[in-house]
Design goal:
This protein has about 90 residues and is mainly alpha-helical. The chain has 4 helices and 2 strands; from the N terminus they run βααβαα. The protein has one domain. The protein has a two-stranded antiparallel ribbon with strand order 1-2.
């Protein structure tokens, strides 16, 4: 099984990035707008986001890798161009 891992450099203050990452219920507006269309949280459960993609068959790994690159680009754009005050 292929595993894809990404390191995403982001040109933004660390506190701004972590604030957006922690706001999982606003993933579609703060972290990956236009890539994720909507996010709904249910109940009072604690959430944890871990992004790991294991791919079978191996042949589709390049396609999935490209999709992850697009998501990473959406995160970078959202965090680099949106001031914290405009997101609250």
């Amino acid at each position: 099984m292929a595993s894809i891992h990404k390191t995403i450099p982001i040109e933004a203050p660390a506190d701004h990035v972590w604030d957006a990452v922690r706001d999982f219920g606003a993933l579609h507006t703060r972290l990956v707008p236009g890539f994720v269309l909507d996010t709904h949280l249910e109940g009072q459960a604690r959430c944890r986001l871990i992004w790991i993609v294991d791919v079978l068959p191996h042949e589709i790994a390049p396609y999935i890798d490209g999709q992850m690159d697009q998501a990473a680009a959406a995160m970078q754009k959202a965090l680099r161009t949106t001031p914290v005050s405009a997101q609250m």
